[in-house]
């Protein structure tokens, strides 16, 4: 019995680590669609349940003990309401078939299925988390212990089996719960480090590293049109020289807030690429619509942007160069070069302007 207990727990421990890694949103196995993710978690949990039943602890000819309910509860935490229903269905069918469809096996399988339905219904009303999962598990394990107690009639052996079941499953659950919480902390720390590595510390916008990653993903798709904007603050060096670098930093932060609001409103994303240069990406925006967005942004900065440095008010203007995929290039290097040329044209023609690369090419032809 001791060997079976150790094996069952080792399987459960491995399951906990694998399932949590599987459910981590940046995992290659993670599915962005909640329903599909829940189905995947449910199937994976159900398969682990099959292994747990095969390595279960035999306490009599018909009664076996395992940690299937730990799996079902954890699947509801990581996969939502649909996961325990799927995992419970797989495990209950497996339990019914374990031992040639005896009455005990069928009853145990039905009990597992009923508990999984109960958990799914609760998860629909309130999300199951690592914090409240304990209450759900205790309710299920106590109900199952009572079921086990009365399954074959009262005997002292059955009473001890019920007590052993409660001890074994609850110890297993709380150990797994501890492991899951530690994994949650670990993945949150990993996510925090990843976010920090992709965020500009001064403005809070995404940085050049994130831009390279996102832009390459968009290029790989190569299905929808999108536009790239390069924004440069006019005479930014003069602001630093006149008001100091603290004022210059304040200008960058305030402009970043405006850019973030504009990109969120128009379905884009904003990046500080370096110095006073910002990149904006607008998926599904052609040259004309991106030009209109850029022009409204330019006017807003011209008319509304103001910060206070000491007793003086600081205002700025911006110049914007735009290129569009695929008309101006099919690679990010091409698009960057085109947008940079458009920005150069805007600055050469007096600054505080928006230029799309197509306009520049037309002007050069004329």
Automatic annotation (TrEMBL):
<feature type="transmembrane region" description="Helical">
    <location>
        <begin position="162"/>
        <end position="180"/>
    </location>
</feature>
<dbReference type="InterPro" id="IPR050469">
    <property type="entry name" value="Diguanylate_Cyclase"/>
</dbReference>
<dbReference type="InterPro" id="IPR000160">
    <property type="entry name" value="GGDEF_dom"/>
</dbReference>
<dbReference type="Pfam" id="PF07694">
    <property type="entry name" value="5TM-5TMR_LYT"/>
</dbReference>
<dbReference type="Pfam" id="PF00990">
    <property type="entry name" value="GGDEF"/>
</dbReference>
<feature type="transmembrane region" description="Helical">
    <location>
        <begin position="5"/>
        <end position="23"/>
    </location>
</feature>
<feature type="transmembrane region" description="Helical">
    <location>
        <begin position="105"/>
        <end position="124"/>
    </location>
</feature>
<dbReference type="GO" id="GO:0071555">
    <property type="term" value="P:cell wall organization"/>
</dbReference>
<feature type="transmembrane region" description="Helical">
    <location>
        <begin position="69"/>
        <end position="93"/>
    </location>
</feature>
<feature type="domain" description="GGDEF">
    <location>
        <begin position="224"/>
        <end position="359"/>
    </location>
</feature>
<keyword id="KW-0812">Transmembrane</keyword>
<keyword id="KW-1003">Cell membrane</keyword>
<dbReference type="GO" id="GO:0005886">
    <property type="term" value="C:plasma membrane"/>
</dbReference>
<dbReference type="GO" id="GO:1902201">
    <property type="term" value="P:negative regulation of bacterial-type flagellum-dependent cell motility"/>
</dbReference>
<dbReference type="InterPro" id="IPR043128">
    <property type="entry name" value="Rev_trsase/Diguanyl_cyclase"/>
</dbReference>
<dbReference type="InterPro" id="IPR011620">
    <property type="entry name" value="Sig_transdc_His_kinase_LytS_TM"/>
</dbReference>
<feature type="transmembrane region" description="Helical">
    <location>
        <begin position="35"/>
        <end position="57"/>
    </location>
</feature>
<dbReference type="InterPro" id="IPR029787">
    <property type="entry name" value="Nucleotide_cyclase"/>
</dbReference>
<keyword id="KW-1133">Transmembrane helix</keyword>
<dbReference type="GO" id="GO:0052621">
    <property type="term" value="F:diguanylate cyclase activity"/>
</dbReference>
<feature type="transmembrane region" description="Helical">
    <location>
        <begin position="136"/>
        <end position="156"/>
    </location>
</feature>
<dbReference type="GO" id="GO:0043709">
    <property type="term" value="P:cell adhesion involved in single-species biofilm formation"/>
</dbReference>
<protein>
    <submittedName>
        <fullName>Diguanylate cyclase</fullName>
    </submittedName>
</protein>
<dbReference type="GO" id="GO:0000155">
    <property type="term" value="F:phosphorelay sensor kinase activity"/>
</dbReference>
<keyword id="KW-0472">Membrane</keyword>
